Task: inverse folding
């Protein structure tokens, strides 16, 4: 997460949440992580559509991939 000053700070889970997660099975933790990723993807996709209503689905999908991969997927030159 980036702060108002532009510096990066790491988010940490507290001890109680660590206990809750440790008590879950591997499958349950993966399921929860996948659901969070899916929700984040849906929110981000909606934001891209709102910002770029004139874009085609493939342009939206590409920008979504760029943002979800933190830049590991590259934008296509226009």
Result:
């Amino acid at each position: 997460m980036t702060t108002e000053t532009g510096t990066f700070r790491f988010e940490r889970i507290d001890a109680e949440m660590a206990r809750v997660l440790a008590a879950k099975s591997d499958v349950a933790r993966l399921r929860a992580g996948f659901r969070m990723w899916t929700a984040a993807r849906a929110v981000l996709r909606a934001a891209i559509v709102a910002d770029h209503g004139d874009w085609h689905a493939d342009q939206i999908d590409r920008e979504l991939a760029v943002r979800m991969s933190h830049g590991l997927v590259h934008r296509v030159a226009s």
User: Anything to note?
Assistant: The mean pLDDT is 90.
